[in-house]
Amino acid sequence: MSLHIDPVFAQTDITAAGTDDLTGLDDWRSMDAKQQPTYLDAEALEDSLTKLRSLPPLIFAGEADVLKQRIAAASRGEAFVLAGGDCAESFAGAQADKIRARVQTVLQMAAVLTYGGSMPVVKIGRMAGQFAKPRSADMETRDGVTLPSFRGDIVNGYEFTEESRRHDPARLLQGYHVSSSTLNLIRAFTQGGFADLRLVHEWNRGFLASNPGYQRYEQTAREIDRAIRFMDACGADFDALRTTEFYSAHEALLLEYERALTRIDSRTGLPYDVSGHFLWIGERTREIDGAHVDFLSKVQNPIGVKLGPTATAEDALALAEKLDPNAEPGRLTFVTRMGAGKINDVLPKLLAGIGDRLPQVTWMSDPMHGNTITSSTGYKTRRFEDVMAEVEGFFSAHQEAGTIPGGLHIELTGDDVTEIMGGATEIDDEGLRRRYETLVDPRLNHDQSLEMAFQVAEYLTRRG
Ligand code: PEP
Ligand code: CO
C-alpha cells in the first residue's frame, strides 16, 4: 500500500519507498478491526477510497494543533471543554436550520459555562463527520425478517430493506461531502457574527422565560447581565466576541475512511487525520492491541478514548502509553461513561488506581452512554436525572481524587424533540411519542441541554 498525499500538503519526496514503514499508518491492517463494514464490491470500495485520497482535507493540521493546546488548558483546569451533537448525524439532516440549531445550542451552553467556570469553554461539535455507528448486534430482525443493522449513513441506510441495509462504499464519498458542507456552514456561522456574545445571552434570556421551572437559574442570568454591562462600561471590545473557535469531532470508527483522509502535514512532515479536528475511539473498539488504537496512535490530532465501567487503571495506563507515549498535554482525553448507578463506585477506583501517573490526560464526562434504558412505551431513552447524577458523580470523583474535571461530551440536538425523559419540561414515558426522531441514541433537546448547562455552571462556580 503506497502512501497517498494531498498535493496541498505534499512534501517533496515523501512518497518515496519506505515512507509507510516510517509512519506506520497501515499497521492496523494486520490487526483485529472491530465494527467494520462488509463491502461485497472491492472495486467500488477502491474507487471511493481513491477519490477520497485526492479530495482536499476538511480541516487544517494547524487547527488541530491549536485545539490540542486548548484541551491541554482544560487538563490544567484553565478551560472547560464542551463537546455536543447528534449520536448519529444523518445525510438528510444536514440542513441549514438543523445545523444552526445545534451550533446555537452549543454556543448558548458555552456562554453559561464560561460564566460559571470563569474560564474559556472549548467548543466542539459531534458534527460534520459523526456518521458511523458501532452496533452491539450485526443483524436486526423485524417481523421475522433479518437484515444487517443500521451502522450510520456513511455505511448503509436506515430504511429496513435489503437494498438500503447493504453496505455501500459510495456512501463514504457522500459522508465526506456532507461533512464538508456542514463544516462550511459551521465556520460561516461562528466566524460571521452568529456567535456574538450579546446575541447568545439574549437567546438564554428567552430560554429562561419559557418555563417557570427555570426560575432557579434567573440569578445566574442576572449576574451574566451585570457582567456584560460591566465589560461594556470598561470599554470591552464586543466586536471581538462576535466570532469564536468551533471544532469538529467524530468517532474514528471506519478505518478505511480515516486512513484515506490522513495526510502528511507540510509544516511538520507528520500525519494528521484531516477528517475532523478531534477523533475518538469508542468503548467497543478500544482494545489495546486492536486496529483502532494502533491507527490513532499514528496521527497527531488530539484524540479521545471512551472508558466504560469495566475499564481498569491498567487499561487506562496501557492506552496512555500507546496513544500518548510522550505525555503531551492535550493529546489524550479519557471520556468516562460509567452510568449513574456505577460512577460513584468505579470512577474513584479508576482515578485512585492511576494515581499521579497521567497528569497530562484530560478527563471528560459522557453522561449519556451509561444511562440508556427502555421506556415502558418501548423507546430507547435516558432519564435527565440519571444524566445529571452522572455529571455530579464525575465532578465529585475528581474533586476527591484531586484531578481535574475537564469537560462534558453529550448527545444533543437543537430541536424540540422528546427523546430523553425528565427535566423541567417533564417528558414522561408517553411524552416520548410526541417527537422521537433519533436514528440511534436519544438526545437532549434544546431546553434540556440548556438546563444541563445552568446546573453544570453551578458545579463549576462551586469548584472555582
Ligand atoms: C457514542 O458516543 O455514540 C458511542 C457509541 O459511545 P460509546 O463508545 O461510549 O458507547
Ligand atoms: Co450514542
Automatic annotation (TrEMBL):
- InterPro entries per UniProt: Aldolase_TIM (IPR013785), DAHP_synth_2 (IPR002480)
Catalysed reaction, written as an equation: D-erythrose 4-phosphate + phosphoenolpyruvate + H2O = 7-phospho-2-dehydro-3-deoxy-D-arabino-heptonate + phosphate
Q: Which UniProt keywords apply?
A: Amino-acid biosynthesis, Aromatic amino acid biosynthesis, Cadmium, Cobalt, Manganese, Transferase
Cofactors? Mn(2+); Co(2+); Cd(2+)
Name one process (GO BP) from the record: aromatic amino acid family biosynthetic process
Positions of phosphoenolpyruvate binding:
R126, E283, R284, K306, R337
The family database entries (NCBIfam families) matched by this protein are listed as: DAHP_synth_II
The protein here is known as: Phospho-2-dehydro-3-deoxyheptonate aldolase
Which source organism does the UniProt entry give? Brevibacterium casei S18
